[in-house]
């Protein structure tokens, strides 16, 4: 049976309605696809705690986590990813790509121009349908 991993992704907005998008590097799984920065929820961790920890590790800044946006189960060839995305804002520091190939602030309306990890598409759709209060 395929393993299911619980993963949280931060949809980080700036004050110009742009979203911070992260490009997975060619040494990561799902190489060269865009994602919402975040990672796997560890035992005993709350989803919000995972997000703050992962963003600190990956981007070197501190976020405040706001409301949940979407929950998706996506079956990849090797694993089922249970992706939970949350709206977030940066409260301290400047994001820098420590693990990703690239970080890019993308205007909300242009999100579809990136090639996303498949599990992220429903979140992008919710964002574009304006179901999230910014
Ligand atoms: N962080 C993050 N991961 C995502 C997203 N969409 C998506 O399918 N994933 C997948 C990629 C990974 O398989 C898993 C998250 O694991 P991770 O961020 O800890 O990445 P990793 O490269 O260390 O994991 P692995 O797959 O190499 O074991 O979820 C997303 O938006 N953000």
From TrEMBL:
The keyword Metal-binding applies. Its cofactor is Mg(2+). GO terms for biological process: DNA repair; DNA replication. The keyword Cell membrane does not apply. CDD domains: NUDIX_MutT_NudA_like (cd03425). Keywords: DNA damage, DNA repair, DNA replication, Hydrolase, Magnesium, Metal-binding, Mutator protein. Signal peptide: none annotated. One of its GO terms (molecular function) is 8-oxo-dGDP phosphatase activity. Its EC number is 3.6.1.55. The lineage of its organism: Bacteria, Bacillati, Bacillota, Bacilli, Bacillales. It catalyses: 8-oxo-dGTP + H2O = 8-oxo-dGMP + diphosphate + H(+). PROSITE patterns: NUDIX, NUDIX_BOX. InterPro entries: MutT-like, Nudix_hydrolase, NUDIX_hydrolase-like_dom_sf, NUDIX_hydrolase_CS, NUDIX_hydrolase_dom. Belongs to the Nudix hydrolase family. Residues 3-128 form the Nudix hydrolase domain. It comes from Anoxybacillus gonensis. This is 8-oxo-dGTP diphosphatase.
């Amino acid at each position: 049976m395929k393993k299911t991993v619980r993963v949280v992704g931060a949809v980080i907005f700036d004050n110009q309605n742009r979203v911070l998008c992260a490009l997975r590097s060619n040494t990561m799984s799902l190489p060269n696809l865009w994602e919402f920065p975040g990672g796997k929820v560890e035992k005993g961790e709350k989803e919000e705690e995972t997000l703050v920890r992962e963003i600190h590790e990956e981007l070197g800044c501190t976020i405040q986590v706001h409301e949940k946006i979407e929950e998706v189960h996506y079956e990849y060839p090797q694993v089922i990813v249970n992706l939970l995305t949350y709206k977030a804002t940066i409260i301290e520091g400047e994001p820098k790509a420590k693990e990703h190939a690239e970080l890019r602030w993308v205007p909300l309306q242009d999100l579809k121009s990136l090639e996303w990890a498949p599990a992220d598409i429903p979140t992008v759709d919710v964002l574009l349908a304006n179901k999230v209060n910014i």
